[in-house]
Amino acid sequence: MRAVLLVLALTMSGSSALAEGEAERVKKAYESFDSSKMCREGRNCDRGLREAAGIDVLPHGPYDPVKMFNPRAGMPNPDPEWITGWDSLPAGDGYNDSEKTFKLMAAAAVQKEARRGCLQGFKEKIYPQFLAADERLGKAIDAALAQSGEHDRLAGLLALRASPEAKSLEGARFRLEREIASRLTTPGARAAWQFERLAMGDKGAQLRPTLDIDSEANAYCADRLASLREPGVRPPFTKEERDAARKALADASTYQAPEAPAREPQSINDYGDYKAPFLGRGGLSVTAVTASKKGQTVTAEWRKEEQMVLGCKQTKERVVFENGKAQYDKNCTYGVRTVISVLTLTLADLPSGGLKKGDELRVYFEVKDFKAKTAKPSAKREIVTQSFAGEGALIAEVKRAGAKVFSLAP
């Protein structure tokens, strides 16, 4: 009897020692998990983990013909943070039960590796690219701001939107848009911002500066790994971590777009009953440029001739239909009306090429004073002169002899 007990004790002791050795090997294999070596085409990672730990499949009973060391029964949870479903795993040493444990451990190792690899790759490769692009665009912004006139500075900044470094809405692009917005303070400038389609629209809410390396890495990887999910395993980024990463980005998005004008600018290239003050726009030809204490006074005008009705007499011969009714046609006499819109602006600066008589302008401004007078050189001729005194102007385009010499739009 004592001999039997001694053999049993030795057997149990040997089994325990064997289990301890297997547990240590499994733990080391889990901690050193490498999907490039342990997974086959992204699959069978559990088998690779088991083989790396040297766990053999042994003969067993008739209904479960093989058995295998089951970490669930032979060791504590090696990684409670990532293997969250450990306690619900079966503890049997049959192949099926053991395989479930190795699958869950492998799934946790894959998720953990995905997080580690993404963060490391971002910090080593992508973030330095962010900083390099920010530096290049930052130098270009500095060069644009170094130009002498405000028109040229604004045009230079807007042209940078087309640069490769400005494709992203983060980093130096945030600074670029803030520099642009800070220069759109006059009514004419804000009108040009809207009417020339220079506004950022919904994209403005996405503008933000480059954050510190950890915040950027967390935001980048939390977004790209969000779809990785496995039951019983911690995801690469928890919901709390993803929410925190999004909040960090949202808190950094402090871009304020220029205030849009309450109404669209009214064209002065027309004959109308204007009432100052109002926001205006026009395409006019420069007639004079003179220096003044406040800068340059520019006078420009626009002309057109149109037919005007002088009088009509109803006939008794022709019948026409108007508004669904038959009525006699009219014989009318016509004259010619010449409409001249004259705009006077004082600008603090002009585009670098200046302005010359005959230049064609597209300009936005606020009309502070409007006057109109009519002259009738003859019974069939009328000349209407509309005079507009504008301020807060921004020139959007200048053409000279048909060629564009200045433009705000890139």
Helical amount among residues, as a percent range? 25-40%
Helix vs. strand class? alpha+beta
**Total DSSP E strands:** 9
Overall geometry comes to elongated
Strand order of the largest sheet: 4-5-6-8-7
Strand count, sense and barrel status of the largest sheet are:
5 strands, mixed, barrel
Give the oligomeric state of the chains in this entry, treating copies of one chain as homo and distinct chains as hetero.
Answer: single chain
Mean pLDDT comes to 89
Low-confidence regions = 1-17
Number of helices: 10
> In angstroms, what is the radius of gyration?
39 Å
Cα distance, first to last residue? 99 Å
Approximately what portion of the residues adopt beta-strand conformation?
25-35%
Pattern of helices and strands: HHHEEHHHHHHHEEEEEEE
Defining key terms:
single chain, 410 residues, alpha+beta, 5-stranded mixed β-barrel, two-stranded antiparallel sheet, 10 helices, 9 strands, disordered N terminus
Summarize the structure.
With 410 residues, this protein is an alpha+beta fold. 37% of the residues lie in helices and 29% in strands.
Describe the structure.
The protein is of the alpha+beta class. The chain is built from ten helices and nine strands. It has a five-stranded mixed barrel with strand order 4-5-6-8-7. Helix 9 (213-224) packs across helix 10 (239-252).
